[in-house]
Amino acid sequence: MTVLDSRGPDPRNGSSLDDQETVERPVGAGAVAVEENEPGVSGSAGPEADNGSTMSPVASGVESGPRDLAAGRGPAWLDAWIEANAHRVLAWRRHIHAHPELSRAEYETTAWLTEQLTSVGLRPRTLPGGTGLLCDIGPETHQPRRTVALRADIDALPLAEETGLDFASTVGGAAHACGHDAHTTILLGAALALATAPHLPGRVRLIFQPAEETMPGGALDVLAAGGLDGVERIFGLHCDPRIPVGQVGTRAGPLTSAADLLELRLSSSGGHTSRPHLTGDLVHALGTVITGLPTLLSRRVDPRSGTVLAWGAVHAGEAPNAIPQHGFVRGTLRTRDRETWSELEPLVEELVQGLLAPLGVGYDLHHRRGVPPVVNDSHSTELLRAAVGTALGEQARTGTPQSSGGEDFGWYLEHVPGSFARLGVTSDAGEAKDLHQPSFDLDERALLVGVRTMVHAALTALDD
Fold it and tell me: Tens of pLDDT along 380-438?
């Protein structure tokens, strides 16, 4: 059996960000971001700032931004930045949306983000793999009172977009159908807004993470690069089409599920379907596993763990009167419980072996461990809920159920406490499209909601 295990590395083994110079900007600095039709001008560029982007300049013709649903709620410097830059936030999202890049190929997105950050004097550092960024904002000291991190994922999905938008994907077979264009835009907006704060009571670390949509995910790259060194808490948002725009869903405890990939390949000498007793009946063996393994798991695993095995692909043979020699089945194995997740790999191997032992076929089981469940820290979630109330008003706070989806933000929470929230992106007009659908889109008013939420999450945690 081949096991591809993506258990996270010790982040202390990576390079530290404590030696990276940070810049605390005076009031007004960075209030005007990069002009849409010209590259960013680096006033204080870091070592990665000369990586020019080959993405086309932002030239969307956007003259006004989305309506700010929380205008005037402060602080004054944040209100001023949003009023001056709301149209740019909208243009950024549409620009990123039109130029999607798949996991670990986000080179142009990374270079473009570098331009925007260096244009206000920040010093981003590209991750060793060449995609994704880390960047600090705050006091110029090696040991600030505390550091909190804000994270966004920047990769797209291998889908052909079907939205019909004027700014739809210009890249064949790639689309931002999971809202990562919005996540990236929100964190960039929060970064440039925070750069105008007259004072920050600590340091904010920005994590523009690559490769969330693959296994093992880009969170492991961030950890290996020391991205959480010195970080006390971490926060993140994800678009949720089940929640109305203007609301943010929070939940203490488990929010997502662990998600593994299974691939079982079977082999047999094959033969004629009139004589199945003379060979290993491979199709029958596949059927035995397809129906038997989920059933046995339901009897060997505590049902309260929410463990679910679902098959997504199966293939064997072509001719109706020939028992094939080769076949495979692939699926996902999910559980809501962290302890159960750690026990599933040897259990699946035991059960597969028992199911196939009397059937005379060979097998090769690939169990690729994916991501742990996102388990939100209670106190961090309290801070995030308070931040939502301050940023948007009490009516913006809502709960959210645990899902069976996987999210590699869970790796960060294996190392530091934090909280991951659901950002409402659905308007009243029309039926909401789900994530990972080629037709997925969002209400762009959610962009400024997200900027305000992330800024206030950082401020609330730093003042805790």
Answer: 999 999 999 999 999 999 999 999 999 999 999 999 999 999 999 999 766 788 999 99
Q: Measure the N-to-C terminal CA separation of the chain; round to a whole number of Å.
A: 48
Q: Quick one: residue 121, left, alpha or beta (phi over 0 = left, psi -120 to 50 = alpha)?
A: left
Instruction: Supply the DSSP string of 77-89, one letter for each residue.
Output: HHHHHHHHHHHHH
Give me the number of domains the chain comprises.
Answer: 2
Express each pLDDT in 265-321 by its tens digit.
999 999 999 999 999 999 999 999 999 999 999 999 999 999 999 999 999 999 999
Give binding residues for Mn(2+) as ranges. Answer: 178, 180, 213, 238, 436
The answer, yes or no, to whether the previous bond of 75 is cis (omega within 30 of 0) is yes
- Domain span including residue 297: 258-371
Cα 443 to Cα 34, 315, 354, 428, 430: the distances in Å are 24, 40, 51, 9, 11
Give the tokens for residue 411: 């790796």
Q: Residues at the annotated binding site?
A: 178, 180, 213, 238, 436
Q: Is residue 64 part of a domain?
A: yes
Q: Do 316 and 385 share a domain, yes or no?
A: no
And the tokens for 218?
A: 């880009």
Residues of the chain with pLDDT under 70: 1-62, 142, 429-430
